[in-house]
Amino acid sequence: MNDDISQKILTLLQQDARLSNAEIARQVGLAPSAVFERIRKLEERGVISGYEAKLNPRALGLGLVAYIYVRADEPVGSLRAGQALCAIPEVQEVHHIAGEDCYLVKARVADTEALGDLLRERFGAIPSVRTTRSTIVLHTLKETGQLPFPDDERAEDRRERGE
């Protein structure tokens, strides 16, 4: 994926996944068929793992974001609690973490009452979950799923160092 055209294509798709191949081709200076082939190869290699619409959580009544540290009582290497957390619809992210806690979870709910219900009824129903600690987001300044690309100068420096 070290080529500038593929990087430009990925940048455009991150900004708007609904762009047509013809529009992407116009912006990167290739034929639509060449863009289609590059995108297909990026999908095959797993660089592009899917496409989704970005929804406004507030418009759907899900205005509260909470980060929840979860401590589970399970054997080392087991991810059973994490897999159970992943199955909860309000849960957007589950990260297996190092430290005293086992998982860091991002959840979206309507309000603090819904958060309490989620913790008691859903998290509490997972047999190995021992404790949770929640941090409620007051205001989100930035939230994106877009990945950065290293600028050319830093990438060149890394190549010169053999990284």
How are the SSEs ordered, and which strands pair?
Layout: H1 4-15, H2 21-28, H3 32-44, E1 64-72, H4 80-86, E2 91-96, E3 103-109, H5 112-123, E4 129-136, H6 152-160
Antiparallel strand pairs: 1-3, 1-4, 2-3
Helix pairs in contact: 2-3
- Which topology of the largest domain does CATH recognise? Alpha-Beta Plaits
Task: Tell me the CATH architecture of the largest domain.
Answer: 2-Layer Sandwich
The average pLDDT score comes to 92
β-strand number: 4
Strand order of the largest sheet: 2-3-1-4
The oligomeric status of these chains comes to single chain
Q: Please indicate the percent range of residues in DSSP E strands (runs of 2 or more).
A: 15-25%
Report how far apart the termini are: 16 Å
Feature tags:
2 domains, 4 strands, 163 residues, four-stranded antiparallel beta sheet, Alpha-Beta Plaits, 37% helix, alpha+beta, Arc Repressor Mutant, subunit A, 6 helices, 18% strand
What does this structure look like?
By secondary structure, this protein is an alpha+beta fold. The chain folds into two domains: about 5-50, Winged helix-like DNA-binding domain superfamily/Winged helix DNA-binding domain (Arc Repressor Mutant, subunit A), CATH 1.10.10.10; about 60-135, Lrp/AsnC effector binding domain/regulation of amino acid metabolism (RAM) domain (Alpha-Beta Plaits), CATH 3.30.70. It is about 35% helix and about 20% strand. Strand 2 and strand 3 (about 105-110) form a beta hairpin. The longest helix is centred in the N-terminal third of the chain and has 13 residues, at about 30-45.
